[in-house]
Amino acid sequence: MRGVGRCFFIGGVMALSLVFLAGISPQVNAQSGGSILGEVKYNGTPPAPKVIKVNKDNKVCGNEKTSEDLVVGSNKGIKWAVVSVVGVKGSVPKPAQKPAVDQKGCHFQPHVLLTPVGAEIDIMNSDGVLHNIHSTSKLNPSFNKAQPGFKKVISAKFEKPEFIKIRCDAHSWMSGWIVVQDSPYYAVTDANGSFKLENVPPGKHKIEVWHETLGKIEKEVDVKAGATTKVSFEMTKK
Amino acid sequence: MLRSKFFQAIFIFVAAFAFFRYGIRPPAPWSVVYLYMGIVLVALLVYVSSDSESWQAFLRPIRVVLVDEEKGLIRLLLMIVLPLLLGYYAYSQAAAKVEAPPELRAIHPAPPSSISFRGKTISIEGLENPLRKDGANFRKYVSEGGEIYIKNCMFCHGDNLNGDGMFAHAFNPAPANFTDPGTIAMLQESYLFWRIAKGGPGLPKESKPWNSVMPSWEDRLTEEGIWKVIMYLYDATGFQPRRWDKQAAISPSLSPGRGPREGVRQRWGPAPAEAQQSGDAKVGKLVYEKKCELCHGVKGDGDGPGAANLNPKPRDFTQGKYKVITTTPGQPPSDQDLFKIITDGMPGSAMPSWKELSEKDRWDLMAYLKSFAPDTFQQAPKALQLPKEVPSSKESLSRGKEMFEAIECNKCHGRAGRADGPSAPELKDDWDHPIRPADLTKPWNFRGGKTKRDIAVRLATGLAGTPMPSFLDSVEKPEDLWHLANYVKSLAPDKPNYATLLRVKRVEGEIPEDPNAPFWARQTPANFPLAGQVIVDPRDFNPSIDMITVRAVYTSREIAFHLTWDDPTASRPEPAAKVFADQVAIQLPVKLSESDERPYILMGDGSNPAYLLRWSSDGGAEEAGATGINALTPQTAQAVEAKGTGVFADGQYRLVIKRPLQTADSDDFQFPVGKFFPVSFMAWDGGAGETASDMSFSEWYYALLEEPSSKRPYVIPPVVVLVSVAAEILIVRRAQRKARKRVN
User: Fold this and answer.
1) Which residues in chain A touch residue B427, judged by CB atoms under 8 angstroms apart?
2) Nearest CB to A146: which of B321, B423, B469?
3) Closest in A142, A149, A172 to B426, CB measured
4) Strand A112-116 and strand A82-85: pairing?
């Protein structure tokens, strides 16, 4: 029994140090990292996008809104999926532009915003009508702030990594996501379902794809220094 | 002066009056005070007239005033003031207020010896609760009884069993208060079984005219279910039922059983000092299990058995989000905030005030609530900082209105504040339950209180977990919060001022059919509260319409009712989408009973049918007969003589419905002049899916078509004044003549 226990102990220490190394490795090996190029596709026939009739503020909101909770392109690529490397932490370089989500035409632009832990973001109101930014976050304190037409910018900060749903109660169709990232290895898919993760430390990694209505899937990817690894994911309605 | 018999008598008389009026607690009724004062007056007269010398001494000051040259001024003053006082008294008597006839009833009518329960005969006399024999399952029965109570009885009798549930204010007689030692503590369990099984309709003749809306629960509950509820009632109040043994049977009023549990009732104790205390969560858990768990759930997640029928849902404590806080938005509430909500309850919802719990119990409860969300309460919250209060003024109100529009309060609350904004129907809380915005014209339902500070603080903090956001940093200038609060406060009176009687005035000429005619604004309104119909399936635990304002007038030919009620939408019926027509009904008996017996409140029954004057948004005015809520027969188009015009604007319906006073139809109610008759109201918000028995209703009230206003109040007082002046002159002259004779 004792021998086995020791084995576990040593194994544990090794595992821990691996995690530790992985944690600090990006700074060290940033140049020698590899890239992951991939796409997320919808398996099967995607449901028709939901169209919502607008019954208020038609001047700025228009008469119809197409829901962005599942956007599938003509090549079946899924837009607005978040791809990340699991378990690899690292400080996120300061974004060139301050992360911002704009309420424009009565929807959140972008629909999914990536923002580093601890960074200040701008929540803007370009519509000139009342919006309220209502988060239902659990790890970060939840908030619900009014943003009348004259209030152009509200700032916010998130201290813990989390996928945070935001909505506007004044316009029930408005919903979006703020993804608070604790590593640089996050990407959002584009209209073709494509994404690119760069400078990923070499080695075997779990890659996770999250989508707000389709859930989460994972895949293991072997990243080689200086090379580009291709990967594709398929998701479908559960 | 004190030696004068006259002034002594006056002094004693005034002192006696002051004592009887103000020296007795609780205050004695006026009739008793008058009686005592009569005795005092007689005693004083006996005292001053005990011998002729004393009598003369008593009369001297009066005589002096009547004859003395020097007292001319006082004499003149008295001669003016006395007739005026008498004239005023005559006026107040002639113009006496009309009051609804009193309703006398037996509090605990004698039970029958046996009843038929779902076709089975149950003997009430000597009946014991059969479940009490099964002592091993006692707790199980009590807890099942609690579930039945919270799903069915709580709406009227209250979650704290004090007869003050969320619908209680709409009923008279008030729902029974089980914590009162005069109710279940002095009754046998068999008596409760009879009252619950048979309800208001089963009350014996001698306790009529009854007005109780207590339903016959035999239609819904099983025999065992009723016994379980009874066990819960005694367990939760800490009382013991009276037993059928001889000793107890002798003196019905003297055996209130064991007193209520310690720490549970402190209603007559001193007002809480509300000092900040930390509270003991372990003790709080025990209080929680007894008082809160049925709605808020064992785990504090707001999912207790009572939650199913409630809207707004009981709060889920596990997220640490509380609606009513005085801390910076995003911060947890302070201990004082939690204590205050437990103490005051949340008006307009099922959450009652728990003042009856001792202050310590409430602090302990507060500590236990925090333990459901330990992470939230780790750091001490920062108190909210508001700018200096701005008093209400014309400028402040106009700034408030400007801000109300600029920050678009109307989006949810509506332009006039009646909760009818375009975003209102889609609102959901953080748990995805539909939620209604507050109706700003009914401040008595504001969950966090209706004072100006309450309103300003709610605006600043928002209501966590609901769509109401924080405006602390979202007004143009910080003091705008106060301007807004002033404006919101100016939208409606503080209290609904419910009426007890509908007075119908006689008018001449044509009654305007347009509900917006200025004529109607001049008529005195009477507000009647409506409660959800929770008796017949489908039930309405969360009625959309909770009040109706009635104005009524009549001419020699016809009667017209002007009804006003709030409804967030003018619905276009679409039954597939559960949207129905909006409706309202005025309920009357078919025939006026000599014994004041009224039809059963929910559209009568076979033995005593009801007559309804109805209006619907798609069908206009109608008349109908009914022998029950699901037994309504609309009259044929030819028979309908009622006419109605309804208009909708800013979340409010206004309707004028008219009918000839007298008709040839024997199924119609014939309106009598100068005689009280019963009337009640029902309303349906079709947009909220209300139709048929899914509705809100009022209890029976009295209405009176007042006889053409008499001239009496303006004729009698001048006559009284003139007569008394004449009498005064006669008395003074006689006294002076006598005095002169004496001198001569």
Assistant:
1) 169, 172
2) B469
3) A172
4) unpaired
Q: What's the rounded Cα separation, in Å, for the pair A161 and A183?
A: 9
- DSSP code at position A14: H
Whether B464 contacts chain A with CB within 8 A: yes
Cβ neighbours, 10 Å, residue B435: 21
Please answer whether residues B545 and B571 qualify as being in contact, where contact means their C-beta atoms are separated by less than 8 angstroms: no
Least reliable range by pLDDT among A15-29, A55-69, A166-180: A15-29
Q: Is the ipTM of this complex over 0.85?
A: no
Contacts 24+ apart (CB under 8 A), B341-348: B342/B366, B343/B272, B343/B274, B344/B449, B346/B447, B346/B448, B347/B444, B347/B445, B347/B446, B347/B447, B347/B449, B347/B450, B348/B166, B348/B442, B348/B444, B348/B445, B348/B446, B348/B447
User: Taking CB atoms and an 8 Å limit, are B467 and A169 in contact across chains?
Assistant: yes
Yes or no, beta carbons of B407 and A132 under 8 Å apart? no
Backbone angles phi, psi at A58, to 5 degrees: -60, -30
Whether the pTM exceeds 0.80: the reply is yes
Q: Is pLDDT at A24 greater than 80 in this prediction?
A: no
Cβ partners under 8 Å of residue B627, min gap 6: B603, B604, B605, B606, B609, B610
The Cα–Cα gap between B210 and B201 comes to 9
Asked if residue B538 has a cis previous peptide bond (ω within 30° of 0), the answer is yes
Q: Locate tokens 């035409």: which residue? A: A105
Average pLDDT over chain B, rounded to whole? 89
Pick from A102-106, B21-25, B402-406, B494-498: least confident: B21-25
Name the burial class of residue A153, with classes exposed (0-12), middle (13-18) and buried (19+) by CB atoms within 10 angstroms of its CB: exposed
**Contact between chains at B468 and A171 (C-beta distance less than 8 A):** no
- Is B471's Cβ below 8 Å from some Cβ in A? yes
